[in-house]
TrEMBL record:
Gene3D superfamilies the record matches: Cytochrome P450
Places the protein is found: Membrane
Transmembrane segments: none
A single GO cellular-component term on record: membrane
Pfam families: p450
GO terms of molecular function: heme binding; iron ion binding; monooxygenase activity; oxidoreductase activity, acting on paired donors, with incorporation or reduction of molecular oxygen
InterPro entries tied to this protein: Cyt_P450, Cyt_P450_CS, Cyt_P450_E_grp-I, Cyt_P450_sf
Primary localization class, coarse: membrane
Name of this chain's protein: Cytochrome P450 71D10
Organism: Morus notabilis
Keywords, in A-Z order: Heme, Iron, Membrane, Metal-binding, Monooxygenase, Oxidoreductase
Amino acid sequence: MSPTIPLAILLVILATLILFIIFPRAATKSHSNHGRGKLPPGPTPLPIIGNLHQLTTLPHRGLQSLSKKYGPIMSLRLGQVQAVVVSSPEAAELFLKTHDTAFASRPKVQASEYMSYGTKGMAFTEYGPYWRNVRKLCTLQLLSASKIESFTASRGEEVAALVESLRGAAAARELVDVSRKIADYVPYLAPLDLQGYTRRMKKVSKGIDKVLEKIIMAHEQGASEEGHHHKDFVDVLLSLVNQPMNPQDQHVYIIDRTNIKAILLDMVVAAFDTSATSIEWTLSEVLKNPRVTQNLQEEVERVTGMDKMVEERDLEKLDYLDMVVKESFRLHPVAPLLVPRESMEDITVEGYFIPKNSRIIVNTWTIGRDPNVWSENVEEFFPERFINSKIDLRGYDFRLLPFGSGRRGCPGAHLGIVTIQLVLAQLVHCFSWDLPSGVETKDIDMSEKFGLSMGRENHLLAKPTYRLNARSM
Ligand code: HEM
């Protein structure tokens, strides 16, 4: 290559940099709104990187401080991408309800390990007939109330296995790495025969396709890995191979192996870490607050008694448990910025112009910690704030949005809530928990680690003591 070419490129870059440094807002505007209105207010973007440097290692926190300055509808540049950050219940309602259709797509996310099948799954697929059909299929075949109900017994067995294994640790007076253990026993994948595969999948970062192939082949041969077989979601999907997903629809999709792998992978990813992490956060708060532990134990004891484990049908009577889980989601939403959306058209919201293909980020973490929404004690874990309140967490109340809302809201919210409540109730009912010697409740570290789902930075360690009457289980 001629040495003059890199020099020329360098000069062009330099000239562009200078132009951006002098006229950053003007440059941004002319690229993004084509003179059709003003963008929401926001910090001045740097050349090339835009505002990426302001996101910090915990972006929800970095965005919280920015939104305090620029308001609940804020404009940012993430590299070359125009983004809008939403940080109040009122603004969230505008984006996720009033104008939900305009913001119902997802941006194409590059190089995700979970994207190996392109956009044939659900969570990262752009809005359109394919996504609609996959969502319908999953909602009916996997996540409907009757399907969830039909797996109650298997969930119970899986939770019983968790209790049994913790009981072993209790008898040996062992310290348990709760973070690891609970992640091993999130129960609802068991009825789908995915649990074992999920553990393996986590170990083999590069072998996801192979693992999925094995799952499918095992099902095709009519036998699961454990040597028994009951009809599950994979079977349902396999029974649809080579058939149109949506015979009545205008766009007909024929289901092939890649569709099945993509949908399966999406389900595992969306369901698994989110739930394990939510249980971990909730238990951390419960252990940090002995008053809450006591209230919870008294409630479960009243409803279930000390002779047996909690049953799923007990959950609807456990009001305090419900409030504890809500409070935990308020402070620790595992998807603090939800899953990004993308605008499908130019649109004006609250007088601000939002160009097509903008990325929409809803900072639900900030909403959960806004004193104007929750009163002054926002940082305190105080489940009683939900007494006599109708605040729901499934996406109907924009003050509490751990599962998002609207067309792209989480289709697994009901299953997720049942699972978290069941596991948590069991853990506090069957065991009392001591912290490692020398550690006090105030020392329980609540630092966050940003990731696909936002978990604890450090593992939670505690020593269980079995507390039910001896012959129970
Ligand atoms: C504690 C448990 C869970 C949490 C906190 C959670 C949270 C979320 C959030 C925040 C979104 C994005 C919503 C939005 O953009 O408005 C989402 C989407 C999704 N979730 Fe969940 N989720 C959980 C459990 C589950 C379960 C159990 C399943 C299925 C078995 C599931 C499947 C999905 C799918 C497929 C999507 C994508 C939906 C779409 O794009 O159309 N999730 N979830």
